[in-house]
């Protein structure tokens, strides 16, 4: 027979574990929210640079360079979000020469029961 102390200890462990998981996911959510704010800023910069490129055709190459740089920033920002999800939920981040592609494939798949697919064909 299981003692009352063992039951209480087990319950206490589960409660602590639940609190740790909640904190873990809260931290992930905050990091993703920060990254999304940064991505919104990048999108704003892209839109401004595109508008300026249209207005100043003689200097268009300068503004289009800005667009290209910001598009790169946008992609790497998304990649940071995907990597955080892979680290903190999947507990597995691809490595090797093709890790970027493998990361996209990983987050495009559902990781049941922990998370839905982060990417879909609609995105």
UniProtKB/TrEMBL annotation:
One Pfam family hit: HepT-like_2
| Record protein name field | HepT-like domain-containing protein
**Where would I find the HepT-like domain in this sequence?**
67-122
Highest taxon of the source?
Answer: Bacteria
């Amino acid at each position: 027979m299981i003692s009352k102390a063992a039951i209480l200890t087990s319950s206490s462990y589960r409660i602590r574990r639940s609190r740790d998981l909640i904190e873990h996911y809260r931290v992930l959510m905050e990091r993703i929210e920060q990254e999304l704010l940064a991505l919104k800023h990048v999108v704003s910069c892209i839109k401004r640079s595109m508008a300026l490129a249209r207005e100043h055709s003689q200097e268009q190459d300068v503004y289009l360079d800005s667009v290209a740089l910001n598009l790169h920033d946008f992609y790497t920002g998304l990649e940071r979000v995907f990597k955080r999800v892979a680290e903190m939920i999947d507990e597995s981040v691809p490595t090797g020469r093709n890790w970027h592609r493998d990361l996209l494939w990983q987050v495009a798949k559902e990781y049941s029961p922990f998370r839905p697919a982060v990417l879909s064909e609609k995105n």
